[in-house]
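The methods section describes the discrete structure representation at length, but only in general terms. What matters is that the chain and its backbone geometry are given together, residue for residue. Nothing conveys this as quickly as seeing an actual entry. For illustration, here is how one protein appears when written out as sequence plus structure tokens:
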Amino acid sequence: MSNDKGLQDAHVKIGAKQTMKLVELGQAAEVYVAEDAEYRLISKIEALCNKHGVKITYVDTMQHLGKACGIEVGAAMAAIVKP
């Protein structure tokens, strides 16, 4: 998320259910996880990403991740969809 526009330009799915589904289907290029999300969600997505070889990038808060995704609310996680 080094550019100023954050994740808004990429094809992104936001939220735990959608992110986990994309990883399980092998369609996630990269996953962003908020460090202040529920521990059970973080541990579950870490295990899935390790199993499927998907890179995880951690973001400090759900609020920052939501803002980077262009939404007004916080997001626990988001996935970049493979092209």
Q: What stands out?
A: The longest strand covers residues 28-34. The CA atoms of residues 63 and 74 lie 4 Å apart. The mean pLDDT is 92.
